[in-house]
Amino acid sequence: MSTKTAAAKTGEAAPTRREQILREAARLFAERGFHGVGVDEIGAAVGISGPGLYRHFAGKDAMLAELLVGISERLHDGGRMRLEESTAAGLPPEQALDALIHGHIDFALDDRALITLHDRELDRLKEAERKRVRKLQRQYVELWVGAVREVYPDLTELEARVSVHTVFGLLNSTPHLGGPSTLPDRATTAALLHRLARGALSAAAPSGPLPRD
Predict the structure, then answer these.
(1) Are 72 and 49 in the same domain?
(2) Which residues span the domain enclosing 21?
(3) pTM score of the predicted model
(4) Of 39, 55, 61, 157, whose Cβ has the fewest other Cβ atoms within 10 Å?
(5) Which of the listed residues 25, 42, 57 is the one where a domain comes to its end?
């Protein structure tokens, strides 16, 4: 089944050529390392010649930068949007925090290659790009810190920040969990990760409320 046909069956828009290239580049970089993958291999994965990639990207460095800066932007912007929507809807702090957790779990399950790529290849970015990633990551952490302290007001800002980084470490462990055959179905895995994340935050502030599942 073609990508276009599969997308039509699920009601999703078919990925653009750039999106296809980035997805396959992320997979290959994660599997073999940045220097272990050639432009020709990435092109073959999406059905075009290696030189044809240069109509979309200046080279592998540009792909890596778009992948790592792009996912940092997506996480930050998505987290901010979830908090703004929760506030506009008048939802309690527990549900706002849950929205952040669910959003990060989607990333952790659907973009495991990008987690591996970030851990291994971030230092390959140009300084300006690396600084952009770090800035977005700090801003994303602060979104979480504010949401956590709304639910657990007894936590100091430092304690909340440490707790958030700990939860990120937990959720971002998904690349080490093996392939789909070694995991429960997606819904079961997501629910387990959600319970673990909330349990870790609750343990950091035992006197605070435990959000309802």
Answers:
(1) no
(2) 10-57
(3) 0.85
(4) 55
(5) 57
